[in-house]
Amino acid sequence: MSNPQSNSNGGVGLVVRGLRKSFGGQEVLQGIDFTVQPGEIFVIMGPSGSGKSVLLKHLIGLEDADAGEILINGEPITTPEIAAKYRMALVFQSGALLNSLTVGENVGLYLTEHRLKPVAEIEAIVAEKLNDVGLKDALHKMPSELSGGMKKRAAIARALVIEPQLILYDEPTSELDPVSSVVIGNEILELKRNTGVTSLVVSHDRDLAFGVADRIAVIAEGKILVIGTPDEVKNFNHPLVQGFLRAEFKREK
Amino acid sequence: MFDSIGEVILLFWRTLLALPHAWRQRQKVFEQFFEIGNASLLMVCVLSFFIGAVIALQTGPVLVERSLASAVGGVVGIAIAKELAPVMMAILIAGRIGSAMAAEIGSMRIYQEIDALRTMNINPIHYLVLPRVLAIALALPLLVVFAILVGWFGGAVVANYNHLMEIPFRAFFSDLKDIVDLKDVGNGVFKSFCFALIIGSVSCHQGLTTIGGPRGIGRSVTKAVVNSIVLIVIFDYLLTRFLVE
Fold it and tell me: Residue B66 to residues A149, B54, B70, B71, B165: CA-CA distances in angstroms?
């Protein structure tokens, strides 16, 4: 969310304390607490309607909390300078590419609008980031010409251009086939390996969560039920957690 | 409509504060400007020609019957320049361009494109609202000047060829010149500039506050057009009052 050259690379730490949010009398977040270490991949899992996406919007500053606080490297997210100090990016569930721009223009939008680099350099960066996510041929295509998976990868490329220190993913594998889901999961892992970025992934995809997470939090009805390593969460004895993790079809044999 | 008037004023104020960024957004301003011209020029031409024609047809025979043929050019000229061209063109642009603005920004809001801009620290007012408001504020006054000229021509054609009037072109425009001065045209152009700001601000506000999917976009488009037209008519009276005095 700021000048990529204003800060060194590497992830930032994130602390969420007592976060509460209500819409129309319904409390969607009922006191959320967790900490994400710099460079960690932290996955928040939970059923649909559990408050995951609302939580994510608070973390990127698109929603204001009723109570509680969010700290980035110890500084409240409400501090005006936070956007200038730390680079954060959100990969939207739908991709949220601007439909009136080409994929290349979308990916370079941040640099173009903030005039951070000369045009030729921006073009080179865009080509490089699209190549990184396997979309080098999509440079001049419109978002409407892309498949769901390609849109998500283009959205990741757009986030990478910011060179984020904290990257948030909203349901990165929803609507994707298993192969595309694995590609996205590998992108998340590779990004962490290469840049040390802190990643926070909101998903109800069990395979993705247990495949990429350093730690997992399970959220239900606006509350966090458990936080731990994938093994700790798997073995956590709580009916809602086990119900979510072991949900399967009942077919007669 | 009146419950959101404060928000529209606030958006307009924020757009004014964003004016120092106008030069950076010049390419978008010109894109929008040409889009407005391209989408409206033919309609402006047809509409203003026939408005001029019908005003001549309605007033001409009555004036000629009372030996006031020399007033036809002036009546048509004043009516078009001061009232009909700015108001009718503003209503046309509210329907043609205001609706498109509300729909485009509304769909960007629904599909999270505006949230995406905000996460990239790109101010939607600088990126979306300012270029549109500036473009419409530049385009509408120019369209109104064009509409005034075409409207006068429409009036002159009817005054010349209608068997109840048969006023030659030269006499029509000479009479018009005697009564209408540049200030009258300036009044109309000034009014259209104010109407453009209303259409731009109301339509962008409706787009930015769209909720609820495709139906919400439809609702925003309707409200953008209706609210713009109501405000245009109210402000037409207030501005005329101010300009007359």
Answer: 77, 19, 11, 10, 12
